[in-house]
Amino acid sequence: MTTDQIQQYVISRQGEGAQNGTINRELGCLKRMFNIALQHTPPKVTRIPHIPKLEEHNVRSGFASYEEFLAVRGALPDHGKVAVSIAYWLGLRIGEVLSLQWDQVDVWSAKLFLRPLQTKTETPRVAYLPLDLVELLKEAKQRTEAEYPGCVWVCQRRGERVLSIKRAWKTACRRVGLEGLLVHDLRRTAVRNMVRAAIPEKVAMAISGHKTRSVFDRYNIVDEADLELAAGRLQAYINQEKVTLAVTVQELGRGRSEGVNIETYETSAIFMEPATRIERATCGLRNRC
What we know:
The chain is mainly α and 289 residues long. The protein has twelve helices and five strands. The strands form two sheets. It has a three-stranded antiparallel β-sheet, with no helix packed on it. A two-stranded antiparallel sheet has the order 4-5.
């Protein structure tokens, strides 16, 4: 396989209407196949052709305000409410949320943990739960134990594990007039909320499971509300400076009107030792005519 053949494939896929992001994912799989083949003993290929990468301009920037989140959650069936609440508060991937079992959630110490095989990066994580989320999980646990005592899944429907909430989410968004909002937008929203709450970015990345700073920055997108908030904070800072300046000017004016106690400075000068061994200015500091 050559680079020319790969480029012909790209042109063919674009003709079929495939987006650049979709094509890049496919080319990524192809590159991974070549790498595995090259690492094989003996190698299945002798070289890896250059695989081009297309520019992507379809990075989403959707967020959900707290009011929008409550509206969508209220329109969801019971089996979807717990899932979206965890995603909104902690920024977990929806696949991580749906794989949670009750032995991973400790509502009394207000924390949950993810096993390595449950995470995209295969890294175990621990997250502490906000009070609102703790109360919701307590109610869900009590209801599950009462109705389905043998169920181990946090997100369950009739005692069985919930595998997907995409259809229920889409229906709920349509009911409340928020079509186009994705479940994954809750993860992006959680990241921005943590940053706005002044949580250190390293801690926020540990909670949401972002391994690289570049991806985290892509999720922490600045929107118009952030810009408006920045303008308000700037105005508050300038107002504070105005007050400080006004007080300083008043104090200076009052000092001039009252006069300066010259005698105090003259008395202090008697006990001051004159400076000695002061070096002359170097040539580099002299002004030349």
